[in-house]
Amino acid sequence: MEGRRVNHSAPKRNPLYVMFLCLVAAVFVLLIVVIVLGAKLGAAQKAAKGAETQIEELQEQVKKLEEEKDAANEPDEKLPGEDTPAVDPNETKEPDTSVSDSKRKVGWLDLTGHSEVTVLPEKVFNEYASYYTTAGVNLRSGPSTSYGKVQLVDRGTKVKAAAKEGNWTFVSVGSKFGWISSDYLSTKPPVEVTSGSLSRT
Questions:
Q1: Distance (Å, rounded) from C-alpha 173 to C-alpha 177?
Q2: In angstroms, rounded to a whole number, what is the distance separating the alpha carbons of residues 53 and 48?
Q3: Any idea where the domains of the chain sit in the sequence?
Q4: pTM score of the predicted model
Q5: Rounded to whole angstroms, how far apart are CA atoms 77 and 177?
Q6: Is 101-186 a domain of CATH 2.30.30.40?
Q7: Residues with Cβ < 8 Å from 53, sequence gap 6 or more?
Q8: Cβ distance 154 to 137 under 8 Å?
Q9: Cβ distance 142 to 128 under 8 Å?
Q10: Which residues contact 125 (CB under 8 A, 6 or more apart)?
């Protein structure tokens, strides 16, 4: 009888078992990677938090330094009444009669830049009218003798009238504007006289 042949070849492994082992190994490697990355992320978060704390501390220090600097620049506290000008109870303060440039246009008449005019006319002509002064007369900044003098206008001077207020006429004399009493204005030039005229109004 022939003897039995012994098969010495390695036993065949189940493919499913091999795949299972590979899967377990992959999961193990992935777990190690996750653990390492988590540790690094935690360290980075701690470092960022520490840096944020340092920045806040620096900001607080800068704020304190600025407050100390402002306190050093503040003037010493004054005593009540110190450097306060004395007020005269009998003194009366004159009202501000100046007119802003934004309101210096009445109809077609634009008085912007003419600071010598403190009262704007209410009745404006349609256009300039020519008049002559019948005597030496003062050009004033308002329609009464209580207003200041702008300049003296000689007798026979031709002026351009633009408006009227009561018995006063608003005129331009050269580059100046102001008010002249209507009693000293005429549409015709005055007759020549030998004696000089006096300043009026």
A1: 6
A2: 9
A3: 13-71, 101-186
A4: 0.47
A5: 50
A6: yes
A7: none
A8: no
A9: no
A10: 161, 162, 163, 164
